[in-house]
Amino acid sequence: MAQLIGFKINFLKPVWKAKLRAVGKVVKSGKAIGLVECDVIDEQQNLVAPASSTCMTLRGEKAQGR
Q1: pLDDT tens for each residue of 17-59
Q2: What CA–CA distance (Å, rounded) separates 31 from 44?
């Protein structure tokens, strides 16, 4: 089970009507902590919003009841 530690997104431009695509990647995957990044892009391949998140992976007894 993953527990969110931090999340940040910067909206760079407004979007009224468009198909958006999110492209994510794992930057660092440790034993307990991981960092992921995602770029939201529009139909013209322009960056709309970059995001990043730090997550903690809970295993075994620590994940019970969550």
Answers
A1: 999 999 999 999 988 899 999 999 999 999 999 999 999 887 7
A2: 38
- Separation of alpha carbons 23 and 58, rounded Å: 25
The tally of domains found in the chain comes to 1
One DSSP character per residue, 19-60 reads --EEEEEEEEE-SSEEEEEEEEE-TTS-EEEEEEEEEEE--G
Question: Residue 32: what pLDDT?
Answer: 87
59: domain CATH number is 3.10.129.10
